[in-house]
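Final report, closing paragraph on structural work. Over the funding period we assembled a curated collection of sequence-structure pairs, and we close with a single example.
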Amino acid sequence: MVARHSPISMQTGAFATLEFDRIVEAVVSCALTPLGAEALARLRPLTDPHAVRTALAHTTEAVRFAAANGPMPLEAPRNLDKTLAALAIEAQPLEPAQLVSLVNFLGSVARVCQSVTTATKGPYPALSAIVSGSANWDRECAEVRRKVHESGEVVDDASPELKTIRGRLRKQRNRLRGNLEAYLRGRETARYLQEQVVSERNGRFVLIVRSEHRTAIPGIVHGSSSSGASLFLEPLSTVDINNEIVALDEQERDEVRRVLLVLSTAFRRRAPDLHRTLTAATDLDVLQARASFSGIVGGVEPAIADDQALELRDARHPLLMAGVTSRLANTTGAGDPIEPVPVDIIMTPPTRALVMTGPNTGGKTVALKTAGLLSLMAQAGLHIPVATGSRVPVFRSVFADIGDEQSIAANLSTFSGHISNIVDMDRWLSIPGLILLDEVGAGTDPVEGGALGRAVVEHFRHRGAHV
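Its predicted structure, as stored:
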C-alpha cells in the first residue's frame, strides 16, 4: 500500500514560496484516474525517515516496472465520482452509460493487476501487495457487457420480458405507421394535411392537419402550432394502437429499470470488495504518476542521510524544465522555458550553514529554492533531478524567507516583514529543520544588516538547523 503519514510542519506560505504546490499540480497531471488525481492533490512531505525511504522505494519500483513492462493500462471516466456516488444510493439503478464506464474502469484495473502478476524483470513487492487487494469482477462485468451495449443501450436479450415487450412494440408501431401512412397517401385525406409527415405529440403519434379542416378527419387534437394554422390530430382509428404503444413504452421503461437495478445491485452488494478495488486502483495510479513524473524530470532516488548531510549534486530546479512547465495550466511567460543549469549544494557534518554570494541574477535565489524544493519533493516520495549519489536528510520543519513579502495591510516594512518571519521560524522550528534565508538583513544599513544577518545565522546554526 502507498504510505500515508503525518505531513511536515512548515511556516505559513512556505509551500507557495518554494512552489511545492506547482510540483504537486504537475504530478497530478500525470494521473490516469480521478481517484489518483484526488489522492495526489493531497501529496505532502513526510517526516518519518522510514516512511520516506518506503515512499521513495515504491516510486523506484514503479519506475522499474514501467521501464520493463510499459505504462499501466489504467483508465477511468472523468465522471467516475458521480457513478460511485450514485452506486452508494440504495435502490437507485445506474444509468446504462454509467454501468459501461464502471465496467471499463474495472476491466482496466484487472488488466493492470494481470500485468503486475505476469511482469518481467521483477520482483515488484509493493505493486504486488497493492494488486492483491483488488477483487475479481469478471462475473459482474460480463453480465453488464451481455445486457448493455457499449453505446449505452440495454439490449433486447437483457431479459425475456424485455424481449417480449420490445417485440410487441415493434409490431404495434409498424401497425400504427401503416395506418397513418394510409392517411398520407389517401386521396381524400391527404388534402387536409398541412405536412405529409407523421409527428409525435405528448408521446402519441399524430397527423398535422390544417386548422380549417379540423372536422374532416375524426380524431383527438393534441395541440396546435405557434401560429395556430396547424393542429396535431390523432385519428380515432389509431387511438387504441397509440394507447397500447404508450402502455408498452411504460412497461419497457419499468423492465429496463429493473434490469439496470439488478446489474447495479450486483456491484452494490459487494461494497467492501469495491472499496478494496478502488483503493488498489488509487494506489496504482499514485505510483504510476510518481514514476511518470520521475521520467519527465530525469529524477533519481536520493539516499536518506542518517548523518543529516545535505548533498544535492547536479541539482536542477524542476519548474525550469520544459517537460514540467508544459503540464502546468497556469504557466506564464513568453517563449520556451530555459533548461536549468545544474548546481551542487552540499552541507556535510559538522557544517550546518551555507552562505551563497554572487552578483544579481547570478542564480542565488534559484539555488536556495532548489535546495528547499528538492528536499520537500524527496520527503514526498518523489524522485528528484539530481545526480546519483545525492543524499538528503529528513527534515521535520522547513522555513523559507525568500523575496520581499512585506504586508502593506499589516503596515510592515521590508525589514519588519523579514524579522516577523524569522521570529516565527524560531518559535516553530523542529530539529532537524531547514531554514532558507534570502538576503538576510535586507532593508537595513549594510553594516548593521551584516551584523544582524550573522547573528541570525549563528542563532539557528547553534539550535541545530540547516541554514
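The chain is about 50% helix and 10% strand. Residues 236-268 form the longest helix (33 residues). We thank the funder for supporting this effort.
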